[in-house]
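Standup notes
- HV: blocked on the assembly model, inputs below
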Amino acid sequence: MNGSVIEIEALQVQRDRRAILSIERLSVRAGEVLVVLGPNGAGKSTLLKALIGMVRCRPGHVRVLGADVGALRSAALTRLRRRVAYLAQTLAPGSEMPLTLREIVAIGRTGCAGLLRPLARGDWQRVDHWIACLGLQPIARRPYAALSGGEQRKALLAMAMVQQPEVLLLDEPTANLDAFWREQMVAALTELHRTAALTIVLVCHDLEAIPPTTDRVLILQAGRPVAHGPCDVVLTQEHIESLYGRGLAVGCRAGRYLLVPQPAQELTP
Amino acid sequence: MMDLLFWAPVLCAGGVAGASTGLLGSYIVGMRIPFLGICIAHAALAGAVFAALAGMTGPGLLGPALLAASVTAVLVGVVDPQTIRTDINVVLGILFSLTMGLAFLGLGLFSVFGVSDNEVRNLLWGSITFCRWRDVWIMSGAAVVEIVFVVLFYKEMRAILFSRTHAAAAGVHVTLVWTLFLLLASLVLTVNFQMVGGLMIYSLLANPAVAATRLVRGYGPLLIVSTGLGALSGIGGLLLSAVFDLPTGAMIVILSSLLVALAALVARWRQGK
């Protein structure tokens, strides 16, 4: 694996005979945080789905934790997904049944526990541990559907973490969150990376959502990488303008990035 | 006074049918796929209708009905809504209209061939008051299979109830367990619809589960309460029908609907406290 937990070679994903994602080469080392930025429809979510075999990619190779994802049969893919936690962009509408937050978090242990075996006491302890870590204890017995968007996202993050994954794939974990909840989520991710030494691939399109522990940034546009490297190299005014147009300036403070609207008189013709 | 010898198997059948469809309904309502119930019930009806056209009668209709229901269930299982980018309820709607069309085509052919269709028409409305102990054992057998399934795949079904996509991403054997669930649904619905009737099954699938969601929270309590309310609807409806000499099916449906209203009132009262 050469220390890489994710290796992509000549990846191409097509929809309706049109390439929606095309990456020649990309690798992510163990313990690294890679942020994938890009406008809507850039192929960010498709990249994450390709990493866990939820979209077909032909031609090309996607190797995750040493396994060729495209060549895996159903059972082997299921086993790989237990080692790679994925937090989807859209919040699950949930069940009509009022399942509690604790029960939802326990879904993360379901695959790991194996078929025909109930969750053991250790599994429930792990569930309660992550509920406590993310500050969800007071609402653990409340129905998932009755939680706020931010609480639901944290519940899904806890569900991903109880899997004890080696790789964490996050698709816009701060989407639809207000500034308070966004900061809570960034702080939680920073802490997770610090304590669990996870490999994290984080998709977002807000610079404010980039954790300070980020090692590299990949910018996708129309399904293709347009910039790739450390934050200070990639998050430049030139790249931001190519992504979001003129009128926004990149700011950086204590490892955190943000976009600030530029006054009209400062914009050069 | 009720004739106990006559009513004992009928009440047992009502209880077993209500409990097993109530339990199944908690999953079907939980996944917001109520069409699944009537889709499979109509597939079973189509299977029974064509078997009757071929000259089969009585218990002989169960096999073809089960076969048609299982084929439909497997079809639902192999269709991946994400791949075809269509909601599962749309897929079920198409299959439902197809199975209903086939069933009514078969019913129409009885007059073409000059054969009596009384037996298969009973399947539409059910014939629970003619239920005997042999039928109760068959229904109980299906209920036991259902309980074994729920016990074995308790945690996997909880994950699937929440979201099949999230469950698959978390490494749950979704395809296997989902297909087994659909086959179980075809067994439970086929066995029960012969007695309860295709139309009444829908209310027993939906109402106890909906009432349970208003009364309790949490996966385990929901399954238990939904099962209990299903049994109560079945037995209570039959008792009301026997005591007041009213139509059986109508009483079961009305009682189960009243339970939903009562549960909603209890939930509202609790919120106001």
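- HV (later): unblocked. The mean pLDDT of chain B is 90. Chain B touches chain A at residues 26, 29-32, 82, 152-156, 158-159, 161-163, 165-173, 175, 209, 213, 216-219, 222 (CB under 8 Å).
- Next: hand off to the docking folks.
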